[in-house]
Amino acid sequence: MKIIAVTQARLGSTRLPNKVLMKIDNKTLLELHLNRVMASAHIAELIVATTTENNDQKIVDYVSGLGIASFRGSENDVLDRFYQCVKDKNADYIVRLTSDCPLIDSDLIDKVINFTIENKLDYGSNVLNPSYPDGQDVEVFKFSALEKAWKDATLTSDREHVTPYIWRNSTFLGKDLFQSDNFEEGYDFNSIRMTVDESVDFELVSSLVKHCGINSSWLEYTSFIEKTPEVLAINAGIVRNEGFQKSLEKDKNMGKGQELYKKAKNLIPGGTMLLSKRPEMFLPDNWPAYYSKAKGCHIWDLDGNKYLDMSIMGIGTNILGYGHEEVDEAVRAVIQNGNMSTLNCPEEVALAERLIGLHPWADMARFCRTGGEANAVAIRIARAASGKDKVAICGYHGWHDWYISTNLSDKEGLTNHLLPGLNALGVPKGLANTTIPFTYNDINLVKDIVKNNPDLGTIKMEVSRNHGPNPGYLEEIRKIATENNIILIFDECTSGFRETFGGLHKKYNVEPDMAMFGKAMGNGYAVTGVIGKRAIMEAAQKTFISSTFWTERIGSAAALATLDVMEREASWNTITTLGTKITNRWKTLAAKYDFKIQTGGLPSLTWFSLQVDNWLAYKTYITQEMLKKGILASNSVYVSVAHKEEYVNQYFHELEKIFQELQAFENGKDILKHLEGPICHGGFKRLN
Fold it and tell me: What is the pLDDT of residues 429-448, one digit of tens each?
């Protein structure tokens, strides 16, 4: 019979950050805990389960130095972290412990293990009817029970605390899904705490170690507390299992969107199809997550709540606003007449003609549906035309192998372009060194790459993302490409139609050999285009580039209608002007409340960050408080023509109140105590 103990540990505790690495008598709380667990007579293997948060790498390194295994998993879905940790271990029973219990008693652990096995229980513990001190909690359960909980649990409290789904559905509470019982020996020490959640808890445990040593039994520690009133008073009044109670409150208040998202994470890897739409990127546990309707710049969630979208507006796809009537009418006509058939749709020819007319340097076009596809198509054509494999890149260009292979030779290769620490797992290792990153506005680096790579056939870059080009930079890139017979591609999937009617490169009067457009071109409908010079584009005939749904009709029809509206309303001028005003109002607000601020992005894709410690906590607080006012907001606004002045004023009216609170946090008020859930995750950098 194999028994594995798993103890949970992380540094991101909101009440007492970094607590498990705090030291008593030159030993961390984590080491005290692990040493006492390893004294168990029944545990065959001990694993520390921590999170994938960057800061928790310290825990991995620390326990490795102690010769103990670790596992990294979800910060918030602890049930998933736990299951993934042990699923391949062939364990019969799992012992669940938490590292904030530094004085856990190994003899008590063994008693609960014996109790569970001898009574043939699915789940046995001493917490169903707690009679031991808080900090002496032991749970033992069959792996089969854990696996069923992992598959079926959906509530926040079930996912954040591993075992509630098991014991809430157990015989101890009158249910019949799991056989369970509570271990007890006639004690009544439930009111005593020797766990560490608050600074006063740390003070009490320090006192216990000082007076009783690090190897005393739980009963000896308890006796000392009872006999020493001043020690007992140190952490008296703190509620047992406060974290679990907060999870129950979340369950009670959880909207349909969060409820569905909990389910989705068990069915869909990552929970959503797009990293940028994960609720953890905005407001973990409290973001509405799903919508029922969208119109103009408003969204309705699954509970019928209406929100003003001062956030990412469909990831920048809706320049004209959600549900634009003229574009939707064109799509409805397609649906009525048929979206797919054996024959081709004439709209794709009209769209090719339209894009080429806007860019006279181009002669031909190909269409697909997503930005990642468009980038992959462009690279395939460029490699076929140049006869050379290597590509130099600057910016964000999607998820396909050719791009992510950048991180095969240097795992931080895309850090300044996408996300730090992006894993290239699944990308063929043979693609290493075929894609070479360069930094925006560093012309000497481009020259070095060209000089040292004679097999470089393509330079692909975003014209601009966060900041514009230095004088002469794009012109010099064009010159280098021409002189070395290198194909120059401008990725305008994001920047297209935001500052000009067409590509952003028109603003700088520098023409590429190929360009891609997406996102805004269909106002929310899936369509992307690749345009280029004839001699290059005809290479598509020499290779194989083909896909069924690239021939569907909705995307092309939506794009044609969107271009008509854009041209008539000069939408690029409207969103650029408004985005510039929003950026300036952020700066004014920051100056008023004594914050240093950084802003960036194209004017219509503007963002800000405050130069403060723990910026992600501040960002989370902004999102949390704005949501209460019916506004979807973070630290960026993707502007549409539907963002009328009254909506922008409403946004800033509420944002200023929050800046007043942020100023109080800078003056000593603890922001972590005012967050109603975990801190949001860091997002895409997308720095050029």
Answer: 999 999 999 999 999 999 99
